[in-house]
């Protein structure tokens, strides 16, 4: 199974100064949103390049439009949604930040993390609904990473067995 880590692949193109990477860098430098179309086409090229192998795409799609663009050319067998409690996500987002600073600064970091989590959840809700309608969403909830990966592993194994029988 091939892992296709989309954000890392895009970062690699930016680092290597490819034409695609230059376009991404120019948009980011100008503080512009990168269009969904070139990103979706990039991912499709990457996926078509792996042939008939099974794959896992991480970090994509990030928008409903990207999901639709991808789905037009490539239907997935299933999509995994990892769902953690907000407290876990806040610790994850704030945890790597330098703990120095005043209590007020720490509270601001937590508030910003909560705001970003709310934005992410709002953005992802349309994706989740889209994949539910396609009947391919596998939703996993956990309080810990270790428990999450046990659930995902079991869920994926069950789904792969079911797919092999169709």
Automatic annotation (TrEMBL):
Q: Which one Pfam family would you cite for this protein?
A: ADK
Name of the molecule in the record: Adenylate kinase
């Amino acid at each position: 199974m091939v892992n296709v880590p989309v954000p890392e692949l895009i970062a690699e193109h930016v680092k290597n100064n490819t034409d695609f990477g230059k376009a991404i860098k120019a948009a980011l430098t100008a503080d512009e949103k990168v269009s969904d179309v070139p990103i979706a086409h990039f991912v499709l090229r990457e996926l078509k390049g792996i042939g008939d192998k099974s794959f896992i795409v991480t970090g994509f799609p990030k928008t409903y439009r990207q999901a639709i663009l991808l789905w037009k050319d490539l239907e997935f067998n299933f999509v995994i949604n990892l769902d953690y409690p907000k407290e876990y996500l806040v610790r994850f987002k704030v945890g790597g930040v330098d703990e120095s600073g005043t209590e007020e600064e720490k509270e601001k970091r937590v508030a910003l993390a909560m705001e970003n989590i709310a934005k992410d959840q709002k953005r992802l809700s349309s994706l989740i609904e889209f994949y539910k309608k396609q009947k391919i969403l596998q939703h996993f909830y956990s309080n810990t990473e270790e428990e999450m990966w046990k659930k995902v592993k079991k869920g994926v194994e069950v789904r792969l067995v079911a797919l092999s029988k169709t």
